[in-house]
Structures are given as C-alpha cells and as structure tokens.
Specification:
Helices cover 34% and strands 17% of the residues. The protein is of the alpha/beta class. It has a single domain, classed as 4-Layer Sandwich (Metallo-beta-lactamase, Chain A). It has a five-stranded mixed beta sheet, with helices on one face. A hairpin with a 2-residue loop joins strand 4 and strand 5. It is globular. The N terminus is likely disordered. The structure holds zinc ion (ZN). The site of zinc ion (ZN) has 5 residues, from loops.
Length: 322
C-alpha cells in the first residue's frame, strides 16, 4: 500500500453536498429572497414560557476577540435586504463560573484554511472562507487577557468545524459534549466536513443529556453546575444535538445560540437562513425553523448572541464599558 493510500485512510468520510443539493440550495435562496418562509403563528402561540432557571450564582461572560467580514444581508437572512450588508464573524466565548472556566465554540485554529476549510467542498468553501486577518483561539485568548492554562474544558454548541477547529491548538483540553451530537458527528456514517473528528479525538470527553425540565420556551435542559447559572437548552435542527448555552450574568440572562440562527435579524423578523448556504448548513430545515420561533418567543427577556453575529458580540463587549 503506497503512501497516498495510507493518507486516504486517515481522512474522514465527509458529508459533502452533491450537485443536486447545491442546485436546490441556490434555487431556494432565489425563491426565498422573493417569498420568504411564512412564520407559523399557531406554533408560536402554543409555546409555553417556563421561566428562567432559579438561583443567584452568576457567571462572567467574555466575548473573545475576532475580526469580522462584511456580507450581503440577503445571503444570511432570507428575504431581508435592509441593511444591505451585515458583519459576520466566528466568535468564541469564555465563561467564568465559580467552579470552572470554560470555552464555548473555540472555532479557529492556526492555519484554519489548511486545517479545516481546505476539506470543505468548493461550493461551501466559497461561502465560508474566513477573512485573512482571522484570529486563532490562542491569540484571541491572549488578546482578551485570558490565560489558556486556566481553561478547564470546552463546550461546543454543536460539532461543526468552525466551532471546534480551535481545539486542534488546545491538545488535551477536556470536552463536554451533548451525547446525541457526539453520536451523530463521531459515529455516524459520514462526518461533518472540515476535520471535526480530528478536533474531538484524543482528549477527555464528558457527556451530558438534556434530561432536565423545560426552560423558557425550550422543552429540555441540562443544568451544568446544578445552580441555574449555566443551563444548556435544546436548539436542535441546525444539527441533531445543537444546544444553546443560557447564562445568568450580572447584566441579565444571555443565550449563546450557536448556529440555530446566524444573525439576530432572523429572530426579530422571524426569518430562516437564506437557502444558500443555509440549506447546506442546516441538518433539518423544519426543526431549525421551529427553533427560530422559540428564540423569537424569548427575545424580549434574554439577550441572544448567535456565534456569527458580530454586532451582537460587540454589543455585549460594549455594554460592559457602560
Ligand atoms: Zn454550524
């Protein structure tokens, strides 16, 4: 067996979209721009409000430094053209709880284009290639004044490359994983694209299930420390085990929403992601749409920070200065 054959064995099978899926995605983006998916008002009205978790412990949330790129709004949010462009980034977060400090979505490693983006199919690569001045997780921690050695574990909202690739630069850092998400990404017939399995392997893994009571408009939850300060909620759809990280901070409740939405305009206007690249990114488009409704229902009482919404990330950073 030659060298190339050995190399091939090390590369995960990837869930690359085929030509038909790509055509459908672009077609859906075009029709969706003109006739966006209609909100399900009956479903919205049926959503209960189970309230926030009880307790008094608070956490400190730090939005880690990252550079954004400007993208047309209509490529992110279906049928929304105003403002014409929005700022998109791949934000990681540090959360300091009295019992532990952890990272949410350490997505960017050194040489992320070679390590992860190069493994994406060209049609996706075009849509997601990061800006050349993107900041890797170690540099981002450093410039945010956080000691990488002080991090106890990482907690991804879901297992897509741009939320876990930074783990490649944090060898041995333990990982907390939603069990169904782990099973989908690590043992399913095809891996998510972009080296996800490499980032997750060879480190201590700790699993949780959403076996706790309903919270806000979410049917299931998991209280990470048992004090209501960090509660994981079900945001499935984008991936089968996507979670939101609900934090009690001294500036009010915050939900780190991962990729359930790409921008808060989706929650305000009740819109799904644009068909391209949304159809290629969301595992279950209808379940994702329901999750958008749940986020819309809670928007008045909780600050929502989607991973790629640079404006929401900056607004949190600036609110600290006030
Ligand atoms: Zn994602």
């Amino acid at each position: 067996m030659g060298h190339n054959d050995n190399r091939t064995l090390l590369i995960d099978p990837v869930a690359a979209p085929n030509l038909w899926q790509c055509c459908r995605s672009v077609g859906s983006a075009l029709t969706g721009a003109l006739r966006p998916r209609r909100p399900d008002h009956r479903f919205l009205a049926s959503l209960p409000d189970n309230g926030l978790p009880r307790g008094t412990t608070t956490v400190e949330l730090t939005v880690l430094a990252q550079n954004a790129r400007s993208v047309p709004t209509a490529v992110i949010v279906e049928g929304v053209f105003t403002p014409r462009r929005i700022e998109s980034a791949m934000t990681a977060f540090a959360v300091r709880h009295p019992k532990a400090t952890f990272l949410v979505d350490p997505g960017i490693c050194v040489d992320v284009n070679e390590q992860a983006v190069a493994e994406l199919p060209p049609v996706l690569r075009r849509a997601v290639t990061p800006p050349s001045n993107i900041i890797d997780i170690r540099e981002s921690l450093h410039s945010s004044g956080i000691d990488a050695e002080a991090i106890d574990f990482a907690l991804p909202t879901h297992l897509h490359w741009d939320h876990v690739a930074g783990l490649l630069d944090l060898p041995g850092l333990p990982l907390r994983l939603h069990r169904p998400e782990h099973d989908w990404a690590m043992t399913g017939p095809v891996a998510p694209v972009g080296g996800v399995r490499r980032a997750v392997r060879e480190r201590p893994l700790d699993y949780y299930d959403l076996d706790g009571p309903p919270v806000l408009a979410f049917a299931r939850s998991h209280d990470l420390f048992g004090d209501g300060a960090v509660v994981l909620v079900d945001l499935s759809g984008h991936t089968p085990g996507s979670v939101g990280v609900l934090l009690r901070t001294d500036r009010g409740p915050v939900l780190l929403a991962g990729d359930a939405i790409w921008h808060n305009l989706q929650v305000e206007e009740l819109r799904q992601k644009s068909g391209y690249p949304g159809m290629l990114a969301d595992n279950d488009r209808t379940a994702t749409w329901r999750t958008v409704h749940r986020l819309h229902a809670i928007r008045g009482g909780v600050r929502i920070i989607p991973s790629h919404d640079h404006q929401a990330a900056c607004a949190w950073r600036e609110s600290r200065a006030v």
